[in-house]
Specification:
By secondary structure, the chain is an alpha/beta fold. 37% of the residues lie in helices and 22% in strands. The longest helix is centred in the middle third of the chain and has 21 residues. The structure holds 2-phosphoglycolic acid and zinc ion (ZN).
């Protein structure tokens, strides 16, 4: 179905960290309209496509995005792919970043879905040629790393990984354990705060202790509930190529040994960004060592780029639309990753808005996981609630972990 653009608006709005970000609104000729906004990282990965600083745009909200708006207005595109290709071309020519292209791509996807009278996840699934399914939430319980302040402290996230037969069951167990952890901290009068992605930041606690604490609480749930970590190792790296873990500085080999030890002691099922992207050998070794037991997940490693996917390095990919810059590119990365046998996880950023697009996207491509933070704060709760809404659709079966790859071999 062709898309004829009748109007385009670009405006500065606020994200959950109180920073400006870009919202776009696209209206098509028949009146179908859509809206979307860009999330933002605290510190983008080194391999990410650039974003445009918003100083002038936030003050006046006009001229900065004009090259994109003026090109799109009145044009007819064969479909979202043509629309997105134009975004990428004009952004390259005018030096605009993914924080301008992504909101337009999200808005156009929603407008196109409305024009086709399809729910967003249905429209995206048709576009991608995929079978929709309900993903499982990756639940941020403890935070650390650069999410804890200027000096990175430990792993960025320690998560619950529920894989029940329904999203309702996943949410119920997530709430039960998150609330129990918070109660324990209060009872012990431990000092903690809530991170940007709604994880608990516990003063002075080591990542090892927090992993053990969470593993202890999940032990009764058998294989329907596991523990995962996002090491976000790129941000822990020192100038000399070593890794800062709390007060300690480790070599890559030592960090690998530490992660393997944690995975054995606490049955980790998910390990994201265990090393910086340059440490390719360590990635490959850990992926092989944990195969069949835990997913090794590339976030800053693949940067949601279909060209970077290498199945020897990891067993899953984190898909962040803001890294790709458009939905077309995000779907291309998802397709390439699936083709390579990788499990799919769709992800938020640390700075979010009320936009829930990633939930529909995760459903559309039948991703195994969707990472939406902890069950606190409006920006994250909006996504939890959208998952609950999508879960009402009885034709959407929850992704069955035993039917798909845990490592590449059994896929
Ligand atoms: P970000 O990462 O801080 O780069 O947005 C969030 C995540 O990986 O969960
Ligand atoms: Zn990450």
């Amino acid at each position: 179905v062709s898309l004829t653009v009748a109007s385009v608006a670009l405006r500065p709005i606020l994200d959950s960290r109180g920073q400006h970000t870009v919202e776009a609104e696209v209206t098509l000729e028949d009146g179908a309209a859509g809206r979307g906004s860009a999330p933002a990282a605290i510190r983008p990965g080194r391999r990410e496509r650039p974003v445009t600083p918003l100083g002038k745009f936030a003050l006046r909200g006009d001229a900065v995005g004009a090259p994109l708006r003026d090109t799109l207005l009145g044009r007819t595109f064969a479909g979202l792919e043509g629309f997105d290709a134009t975004l990428v071309r004009v952004a390259e020519e005018s030096g605009l970043g993914t924080n301008f292209t992504l909101p337009l791509s999200l808005a156009a996807s929603r407008a196109a879905a409305a024009q086709a009278r399809r729910p967003l996840h249905g429209y995206l699934a048709e576009l991608a040629g995929t079978d929709p399914a309900m993903p499982h939430p990756l639940v941020n319980v403890f935070s650390g790393g650069i999410h804890s302040g200027l000096v990175p402290n430990g792993f960025q996230q320690i998560m619950l990984v529920p894989e029940n037969a329904s999203i309702g069951d996943d949410v119920a167990v997530a709430l039960k354990i998150f609330n129990a952890v918070q109660r324990r901290l209060r009872t012990r009068a431990e000092r903690y705060s809530l991170s940007d992605s709604s994880g608990l930041l516990v003063d002075g606690a080591s990542s090892g202790r927090l992993v053990a604490e969470l593993a202890d609480l999940t032990a009764y749930h058998g294989n329907t509930l596991g523990v995962g970590v996002d090491v976000a190792a790129e941000h822990l790296q020192t100038a000399g190529g070593r890794y800062r873990l709390g007060p300690r500085e480790l070599s890559g080999d030592d960090l690998a040994a530490e992660i393997e030890r944690l995975s054995v002691d606490h049955d980790l099922v998910y390990v994201e960004d265990p090393f910086s992207p340059e440490d390719a050998e360590l990635w490959a070794e850990l992926t092989a060592a944990l195969s069949g037991r835990a997913l090794v997940v590339g976030d800053d490693l693949f940067a949601t780029d279909s060209e970077r996917i290498e199945p020897a390095l990891a067993s899953a990919i984190l898909l962040k639309p803001s890294q790709a810059g458009t939905i077309t590119r995000t779907l291309a990365a998802a397709a390439a990753a699936r083709e390579a046998g990788l499990a799919l996880c769709v992800s938020h950023r640390s700075g979010e808005t009320e936009d829930t697009f990633i939930c529909d996207l995760a459903v559309a491509i039948g991703a195994r996981f969707v990472k939406i933070g902890g069950p606190r704060r409006g920006d994250r709760i909006a996504k939890w609630n959208q998952l609950l809404r999508l879960g009402e659709n009885e034709s959407l079966i929850a992704v069955d972990p035993f039917e798909i790859t845990a490592g590449k071999e059994d896929g």
